[in-house]
């Protein structure tokens, strides 16, 4: 249950990058009835049609974005003769997509 809750919040925060509705309140207000099928907003329709976000970047699915974020890694380098003295962490450079995702989530990559 906790994983679903975390995923729900991540999708909400990352909506500007995803094929997702960004303004749920506006979409809800545009519905004719609470029992009527939900229709995507013009912005969401544009995202689906052009495959681009409002800032011109390529839109992606949540799973694809997670795969991209999974490419970020940390490496430990240990010298055999003195392992207690030479442990260093090496972080790879973030891609623009990774930087934006971390910014939207409000977390640091360190």
Walk me through the topology.
Blueprint: H1 2-13, H2 24-30, H3 42-50, H4 62-70, E1 74-77, E2 88-91, H5 96-105
Antiparallel strand pairs: 1-2
Task: Give the strand tally.
Answer: 2
Determine the number of helices (DSSP H or I, runs of at least 4 residues): 5
Q: CA-to-CA gap between the ends?
A: 27 Å
Instruction: Calculate Rg over CA atoms.
Output: 19 Å
Low-confidence stretches: none
Describe this structure in words.
The chain is mainly alpha-helical. It has one domain (2-104). It contains five helices and two strands. The protein is elongated.
Summarize the structure.
With 110 residues, this protein is mainly alpha-helical.
Essential attributes:
110 residues; mainly alpha; two-stranded antiparallel ribbon; 5 helices
């Amino acid at each position: 249950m906790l994983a679903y809750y975390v995923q729900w919040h991540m999708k909400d925060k990352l909506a500007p990058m995803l094929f997702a509705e960004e303004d749920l309140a506006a979409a809800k207000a545009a519905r004719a009835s609470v029992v009527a099928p939900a229709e995507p907003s013009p912005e969401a329709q544009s995202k689906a049609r052009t495959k681009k976000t409002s800032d011109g970047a390529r839109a992606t699915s949540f799973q694809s974005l997670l795969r991209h974020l999974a490419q970020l890694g940390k490496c430990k380098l240990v010298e055999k003769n003195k392992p207690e003295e030479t442990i260093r962490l090496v972080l790879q450079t973030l891609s623009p997509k990774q930087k934006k995702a971390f910014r939207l989530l409000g977390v640091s990559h360190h």
